Amino acid sequence: MAYNGGPMTEAMYYVLLALMRPNHGYQLMNAITDVSNGRLTMGPGTLYGVLSRMQKDGLISLAQDDGRRKTYQITKDGEQALRIEYRRLKALIYDSRLLEEGDENV
């Protein structure tokens, strides 16, 4: 089943962002915390569930599996999905400009 292009979960977004450089599980957990500026910490159970789903959706692939650790990388489809989600999030922020203008109708 391919990714349908709908809004991503926060976990998916940060996994893809962290996989702009290939990583294995433990490194990936740290990278997610780093790229989210500490806002998101992901435990192994959550991480491997997300990785499994994203691999099935073709957003990530195995770069290496030495039997002890698996190194994941973002695919072209994954990078495209990440960029689409980035543009969607930017549009949400742009649309919120009314809050900054102090519009009392918001």
From TrEMBL:
The keyword DNA-binding applies. Keywords: DNA-binding. One of its GO terms (molecular function) is DNA binding. InterPro entries: Metal_resp_DNA-bind_regulator, Tscrpt_reg_PadR_N, WH-like_DNA-bd_sf, WH_DNA-bd_sf. Residues 20-83 form the Transcription regulator PadR N-terminal domain. This is DNA-binding transcriptional regulator, PadR family.
